[in-house]
Each structure stands twice: as C-alpha cells, then as structure tokens.
Amino acid sequence: MKNTYNFMIKTTTILTLILCHVPPVLAKEDQEITSPTQAEDQFHLAMHYKKNDDNKQDLEKAFRWMEEAADQGHAEAQHQLGLMYDRGKGVAKNEKKSFYWMQKAADQGIAAAQFDMSLIYQEGIIFPKNPEKAFEWCQKAADQGYPNAEAVLGDMYYDGEGTPKNSEKAFYWYQKAADQDYPDAKVSLGYMYNKGEGTPKNSEKAFYWYQKAADKGIPEAQSNLGNMYFIGEGTPKNPEKALYWLKKAADQGNIIATYLLGKQYMAISNEKEAVHWYQKAADKGLASAAFYLALMYNNGRGVAQNPEKAFYWYQKAADHNIPEAEFNLGLMYNLGRAVPKDLKKAYFWYQKAAEHGYVSAQVNVGLQYLLGIETNRNLEKAFYWYQKAADQGNEDAETRFGYMYQLGYGTPKDLEKAKYWYQKAADQDYASGKYALGQLIYDTGKTNPKNLAEAIKWIKQAAYQGNEAAECFLGALYERGEGVPKNLEQAIYWLQRSAQQGNALAACNLGLIYYQGEGVPKNLEQAAYWFKKSAEQNFAGADFCLGMMTAHDDIPSYPHTMDESLRWYQKAQLHVHISMTEVTPPSPSMIPFLQEIYQSLDDLPPLKFTE
C-alpha cells in the first residue's frame, strides 16, 4: 500500500522461527543427550540445540538432527532446515538448498514455509521476482490463518501485485490479520478507514485502529495518530497529544512524524522549533520538509532570512517533483533572487510545475505562450494551459480563459463560452471576473436597458472590491452619465481611485477632465499632474496631451518650450504602437478629443486605441 502523509507502510516481514517446547527425549541440561531415531524427537532435539544461537557446536548439532528429521519427511524440520541454509546457521549459507527445503515444507502445508516461499518470489530471492507465484503462496498461508500472510495478502490486493487490484479484498485480509493482533495490519486497516478505500470512510474507526497499533509501538501508527490529533480528524483536536505521538514516532526515526512536528509547531506559532524539525526531516531527504524549510528561509520565519538557503532547499524539493517548489524556483529565477535573473530557467521550472498540476504555474505558462516569452508565441498552447488551470477552479485562470474565448485566441471566438467562464470566476467573488463579465455584457448588449443594468451591477461590484480597471470604467460611466446619473464628482472619485492604483487610462482621463474644465474648474496643474502619471507608464494618449500642453499652455511646473513639447510627441509616436490589451479602453466621450489632438500633429500616423 502506498501513500503520502497518511504514511501507510507496506507490510514487510522477515523469516520467522518456530518456537517449540523441549521434547521428552532430552535429558537434563548437564547430561549427554540421547540419539533418537523418530523424526519428531529428532526435530525437538534439533530445536533444543538451535536455541543456543551463539554456540557454533550446538548449531552444528542442531543442523545434524534437523537434517535427520527433514530427510524423514518431517514438515516443520524441513522448514527450519530451509531457514538454517538461508541464514548460514550451523551450515554454510546455500540459497538453493534453502529454497529446496522451504518448498518441501510448504508443499506439506506448513503456513510459515508457504509465507516464506511467497517472500522469496516477491523479493526476487534466488529467482527473478514472480508476483503471481508470490501471491499464490501467500494465499495458501493466509487461508490457514497465518497473520503475516493475511497482512501481506492485503498489500498485494491493494497494490495489484500478482493479482488485480481489489480494495475490498485488501480490507478483508487486513481485518483478518488485525483481528489476530497483527500490528502492521492495524495500521493498514486504519488507513483504509481513513481514506474510505474498500470500506466506507470512517475517521473514528481509523483513529481506533491507529491507536491500537500505536500502543504496540508501531511508529507509522504513532505518526498517523499524531496527525489525526493535529487536524482533529476522528477525534477532537488536541495539540498536546499530537506532539506526544509525533515525538514518539520521530524518536523511532519516522521521517514523516519529524516533518509533521514542524507543521505542528508552526500551527502553535513556535517558528524556531518548526525550523528545527523541518531541518531534521529535510536532512533525511524528505522533499516536503525541504520545501517548507525553503519557505522559512525565504520569508525569514524562525530563522534569519537567507535567499541562498531558500534557493538551495527549493532546488532539493523541486528535484523530487514538488510542484510548489518548482514554481517558487521559477519565481526566484524570474526575480533574480539569490541567482542571476534568467527567464529561460524561470519558465523551465514553471513548465515543470505546470505539468505537475500546479495552477499558478499553468497560468504563468499560459501567459508565456500568449506573449511569446522565451519561446515562440503560440495561442493554442496558451489556450491549453489556461484551460488546464481553469478546469481546476482557479478564478484567475477562469477569467483569463474567458478572455481567450472573447478574443478568439487559440480557439474560435465564442462570447457565450467567454461569459460562462467569467460567470464562474464572478461566482467565486473574484473582482477581475466580475469586471470582465460586466464589460462583456456591456459590449454585447448595452443598448438594452436590462443588459446595461446587469453590466453596471457587475462593474460596480468589482470596483467596490478595488479592481482598478472596474474603477476606471465606472468613472467613465459617471463622466458621461451612461446607465447611471451623470456625476462628475463620482467620476473623479472613481477615476482617482483607479489612477492611484496605477491605471494609466484613468490618470489620462482625469487629466482630460481637469484640462477641459467640464463640470469642474479648469486646472492645468492638475491636468499636467495626471497626464504625467499616465505618461510615466508609457500611455501614448498622455504623451500627446503633455506635448500639446508644453507647446501651447503656460504651466509653471513644466518647461514651456518646443523642445520639451517635441520630446513628448516623440514619446507618443514611439508608444502608440505598443499593445495596450491589458488597459481598459478610454471612455467614448474622451476619444474624439484625443483623436483631435493627435491628428493635429503633422507627420504622425492616426491614433488607435486597442479594444
């Protein structure tokens, strides 16, 4: 059985010895032992000598009498003789002879021998691995009620080794072994109940069986029990008991418990202790611990901030395919943090994380293909990765995926599908999704008062949540009185909120309002201030306006020279061709004014705003 943090460890059992009573044929300890002829007596005599495991002479005598009994067909002696050959006890180690006698005993129905035969085929001892034969022998031993075999048979059904996967049968055999007080089976049974595999999910029963196994000292069970106390599953949350059981498991070297101690200490705000346990688990090679240790170094929590160590541990975790670590490694290359900035390496790691299902990475890779960053522009691949992220319910990806349908990027244009994805994002209270939905409804049905009201509803919601594009759009609606009463005060309020968040179009529109003096006193200083704010973001319309103002208007704060005016016009000419797909189009009432300014300039192409 395989798992991650529920830590079900596959049952492995070493070959075991059969303990037998001392036979009547044995004399007192200080007397010479007689030479029996009956196989049963020979077997017991051999077992008597065999218990002196450190005495070579006794082991040789044990082998002699065990062989005598085995040659007479004594099944248990045949099994023990196989074990002696396997371990080189009383005789030279010989795997082929070990197998020979094991099979003889197994054929006579000795359950322990049948189980050992299963292990031989399962582990590939002597012969190549043969899962089917391993299953066959394990089944024979389990059918006789041998608990080790019952537990391993459960593993085989769970993992589909030598037999088709069957969680129900796995559960059945784990239960059989657990009922015989076999500790490892109790851990497996707890896992099945916890995951709802082979049986309905039952956290309380999972807790019960983990407790049973933990009380027997099984570290995996102690770790799982501590985790259940930690998260409050199957039992009320109890940080003290969580720490108790996790420490019990960690003291036995359980790496998962060591890692979980780090998480538990983080939960109780002991960051220094959390770093200690993350470090211990990371040093033992646990990738998840390496990732969290990297986070601690990256953010300076519980330890001095150290980007270089953060990078080192992100790399360790990323090498084990931890998607969050791959993504963060990409970010460090993207930002040039602890390493030289390298977009190629950044997107290499984003791609890895995206392939491992990490949503933020899928969005970044989608953007990479959309814009052609360190690769050829590929709208179909951009569409593919945005869909991957959107299908996981990520609201940002849903919005971006909607844009792809709205613009017909990588797929035929489909406004209904665009609206569907915007709506999904909006239903998750995502401001950008609400704005996109409102703008789409506005663009496709603003002539219908009902549609206009619906559009404004979503745009307002997005604006109230601080979406700068929605604030800009709402300001433009108030400026021209479309769908809302015309209100210059509200227009300035919303445009200013948007501009203060860095929206270049909002800043330019504010500048136009103050420059025209429509509804407010004309204020060239304020107009120039907002045009400059917009121009700092390379917004061509603001460049034009500043060029015009420095040529024709007397503004104390700005040089009134033709050279300065020409400088702004040249900037405008440069920036007009830069894509502004991420910027909200200007309000329609502003476009004629900007167009008039621009078209009055000689030798420059006409102004076009990207919609």
UniProtKB/TrEMBL annotation:
Pfam families: Sel1. The keyword Acetylation does not apply. The keyword Signal applies. InterPro entries: ISR_Activator (IPR052748), Sel1-like (IPR006597), TPR-like_helical_dom_sf (IPR011990). Residues 1-27 form the signal peptide. Keywords: Signal. SMART domains: SEL1. It comes from the Bacteria. This is Sel1 domain protein repeat-containing protein. It comes from Zymomonas mobilis subsp. pomaceae (strain ATCC 29192 / DSM 22645 / JCM 10191 / CCUG 17912 / NBRC 13757 / NCIMB 11200 / NRRL B-4491 / Barker I).
